């Protein structure tokens, strides 16, 4: 290598001066390139084949909490945690095999931030040989969150990072090679800049704070070319939305005051459309001149994101309006059970815990607060047990729960799981319905009582007929005893036999009176297992006299096994009485010869029992078939028309049904089914 003197002797002075000037300019460009790289909102650098960091911009110090001087020359395996290295290990193998990487990963960094980063690994390939790779790591956490929430904003921000520095040797024989390397480096940086942002530009600031655009690149430079080519500092002024002029003035003031600025404002493009721009500005301060000498800016078009955010805001407003218009209380809980949305109606339904109804509150905490405030009537005796029971069926796919409040109101609580693991809860005020049901039950009980009393005349006749026999026995045996007393011909066996007969006849009369009394007496219904045969026999005894007087053949067909049903005995006895009484009236009114009534019962596959009462009378008229079970509908010459209506209500109240079998060949056949059959 020649020394400086020999270089001066053998080299043209003009060429030497030119070479020195070129080197100075090259150094200045390199310094400016480093400044630009350090101002970028991403991690940029170069890694060689041994996975050693050759270059990285200043952002690496913030993320990895170490000086850059310590990081340059460090192997990635040493720098990264095991978890971090495990995430990118496969990507490193791929890029060193010549594949360009453009993917996103979630990584925990030493500064305590778990970032979603966009990774661009670009192989440095010269003459089919991999020298290392360029990397660009950009924090896209906020963007990813916006994409996940809005599902419409998807930035196409691919970045490439190339080697930004080259070794510059002061060797005369490599001048041409160094010039080519410089030109190649500048071109690579321009490509990377275009990938990193929609627009990157640099302002030069003179001592009078006048600015001029000295460098720019990116997609938006083509769309805003007329404003950029004039090189004027008012890059955005000609196209900014009028309402954002003040924001632009404040931005320039901050930058000229040596403060970094990140702003969003609207511009009007060449097509007349409004676009949203996010601009990152970083001033370059000169200590010697005590002022800002340059401003470096990266701009992104965020129109799609803003439009998506506006759409979400509009949808949220509509949802809020819809929720507030609901007549029911509404609550929405997320996967963790925390409250995320509710309407004002829920506060009206549960005023004592309105102050607890805040976003983030757990469902369990709301239930406990309501119980503690004394809103739940059933929780008065044992609050904790009620809360535990309430939480066992939350949420529920199968149905809802009716809850009575201490102020007399009733609320229907429905809690259904959502597809994402949350819960939608609806609270409906059913106080009016519950009161109507209670009133209906009361009216039905009154009607049943009216019907029973209306049947008193017929029962009195049956009672008189049935009592005549045991009373006649009592009178006859009493007269016989008296006559024998007069004759003094009594013996102990005769007295014992007569008294037994009198006692049995008296007990028979007592049972008959009790059956009628139980049937007519009004009381609270008691449900328990009852023998169907016993109830049929009881009603048959009551109507025995009417059957005999009207010469009606009466058959009872019951299974050999004992059938027991879970019912209220008085109510089901009343249904049997009504159906048999109607059958008697039907055959009497039609004057049917060989009048016959058949009562039959049979079980259905162990799930219940069906009872039918059929007669061979004239049947039900066609005009009454569809309204037969409505109140006050009757085909009799006299009667209230309430028997079948009340009978159907009683059967349905037991979970069964009552119907007219229209397949009957002659006469009529009524059937009713009672579920939950228990065989004993």
Describe the structure.
With 680 residues, the protein is an alpha+beta fold. It has five domains: 4-194, Beta-Lactamase (2-Layer Sandwich); 197-308, Beta-Lactamase, CATH 3.30.450; 329-429, Beta-Lactamase, CATH 3.30.450; 431-523, Helix Hairpins (Orthogonal Bundle); 528-680, Histidine kinase-like ATPase, C-terminal domain (Heat Shock Protein 90). Helices cover 44% and strands 24% of the residues. The strands form five sheets. A five-stranded antiparallel β-sheet has the order 2-1-5-4-3, sandwiched between helices. The longest helix has 32 residues, at 456-487. The radius of gyration is 49 Å and the shape is rod-shaped. The N and C termini lie far apart (117 Å). Mean pLDDT is 79; it is low at 153-168.
The level 1 CATH classification of the largest domain is Alpha Beta
Q: How is the largest sheet built, in terms of strand order?
A: 2-1-5-4-3
Quick one: biggest sheet? Answer: 5 strands, antiparallel
Q: Compute the gyration radius: what is it? A: 49 Å
CATH T-level fold name of the largest domain: Beta-Lactamase
Q: What share of residues is helical?
A: 40-55%
Question: Beta-strand level of the residues, as a percent range?
Answer: 15-25%
Average pLDDT over all residues: 79
Identify low-pLDDT runs: 153-168
N- and C-termini, Cα separation? 117 Å
Number of helices: 22
Superfamily at the CATH H level of the largest domain? Answer: PAS domain
Examine the secondary-structure arrangement and name the CATH architecture of the largest domain.
2-Layer Sandwich
Structural class: alpha+beta
Total count of strands: 23
Principal-axes shape call = rod-shaped
Domain unit count: 5
């Amino acid at each position: 290598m020649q020394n400086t003197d020999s270089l001066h002797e053998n080299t043209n002075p003009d060429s030497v001066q030119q070479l020195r000037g070129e080197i100075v300019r090259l150094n200045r460009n390199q310094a400016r390139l480093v400044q630009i790289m350090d101002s970028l909102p991403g991690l940029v650098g170069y890694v060689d084949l041994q996975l050693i960091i050759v270059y990285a911009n200043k952002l690496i110090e913030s993320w990895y909490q170490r000086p850059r001087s310590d990081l340059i020359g460090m192997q990635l395996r040493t720098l990264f945690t095991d978890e971090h290295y495990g995430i990118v290990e496969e990507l490193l193998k791929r890029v060193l095999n010549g594949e360009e990487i453009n993917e996103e990963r979630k990584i925990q960094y030493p500064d305590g931030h778990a970032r979603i980063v966009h990774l661009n690994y670009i192989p440095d390939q010269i003459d089919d040989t991999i020298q290392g790779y360029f990397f660009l790591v950009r924090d896209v956490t906020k963007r990813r969150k916006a994409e996940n929430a809005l599902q419409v904003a998807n930035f196409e921000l691919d970045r490439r990072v190339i080697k930004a520095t080259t070794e510059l040797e002061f060797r005369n024989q490599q001048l041409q090679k160094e010039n080519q390397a410089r030109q190649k480096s500048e071109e690579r940086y321009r490509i990377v800049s275009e990938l990193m942002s929609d627009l990157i530009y640099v302002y030069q600031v003179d001592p009078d704070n006048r600015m001029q655009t000295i460098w720019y690149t990116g997609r938006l430079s083509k769309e805003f070319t007329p404003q950029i080519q004039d090189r004027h500092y008012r890059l955005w002024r000609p196209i900014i939305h009028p309402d954002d002029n003040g924001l632009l003035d404040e931005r320039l003031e901050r930058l000229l005051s040596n403060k970094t600025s990140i702003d969003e404002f609207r511009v009007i493009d060449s097509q007349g459309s409004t676009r949203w721009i996010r601009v990152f500005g970083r001033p370059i301060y000169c200590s010697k001149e005590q002022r800002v000498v340059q401003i470096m800016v990266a701009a992104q078009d965020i129109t799609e994101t803003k439009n998506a955010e506006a759409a979400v805001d509009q949808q949220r407003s509509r949802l809020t309006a819809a929720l507030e218009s609901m007549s029911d209380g509404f609550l929405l809980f997320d996967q963790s059970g925390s409250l995320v949305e509710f309407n004002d109606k829920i506060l009206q339904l549960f005023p004592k815990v309105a102050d607890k109804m805040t976003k983030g509150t757990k469902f369990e905490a709301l239930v406990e607060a309501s119980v503690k405030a004394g809103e739940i009537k059933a929780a008065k005796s044992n609050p904790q047990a009620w809360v535990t029971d309430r939480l066992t069926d939350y949420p529920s796919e199968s149905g809802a729960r009716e809850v009575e409040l201490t102020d007399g109101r009733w609320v229907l609580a429905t809690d259904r799981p959502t597809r994402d693991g949350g819960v939608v809860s609806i609270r409906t005020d059913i106080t009016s319905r519950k009161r109507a049901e209670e009133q209906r039950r009361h009216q039905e009980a009154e009607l049943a009582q009216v019907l029973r009393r209306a049947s008193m005349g017929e029962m009195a006749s049956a009672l008189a007929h049935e009592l005549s026999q045991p009373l006649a026995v009592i009178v006859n045996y009493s007269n016989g005893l008296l006559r024998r007393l007069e004759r003094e011909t009594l013996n102990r066996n005769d007295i014992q036999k007569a008294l037994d007969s009198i006692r049995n006849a008296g007990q028979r009369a007592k049972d008959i009176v009790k059956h009628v009394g139980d049937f007519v007496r009004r009381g609270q219904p008691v449900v328990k297992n009852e023998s169907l045969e016993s109830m049929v026999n009881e009603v048959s005894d009551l109507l025995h006299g009417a059957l005999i007087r009207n010469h009606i053949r009466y058959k009872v067909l019951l299974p050999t096994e004992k059938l027991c049903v879970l019912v209220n005995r008085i109510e089901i006895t009343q249904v049997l009485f009504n159906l048999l009484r109607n059958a008697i009236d039907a055959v009497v009114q039609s004057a049917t010869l060989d009048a016959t009534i058949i009562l039959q019962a049979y079980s259905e596959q162990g799930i219940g029992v069906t009872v039918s009462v059929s007669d061979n009378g004239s049947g039900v008229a066609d005009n009454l078939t569809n309204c037969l079970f409505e109140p006050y509908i009757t085909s009799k010459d006299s009667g209230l028309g309430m028997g079948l209506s009340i009978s159907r209500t009683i059967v349905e109240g037991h979970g069964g049904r009552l119907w007219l079998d229209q397949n009957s060949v002659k006469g009529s056949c009524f059937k009713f089914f009672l579920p939950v059959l228990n065989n004993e």
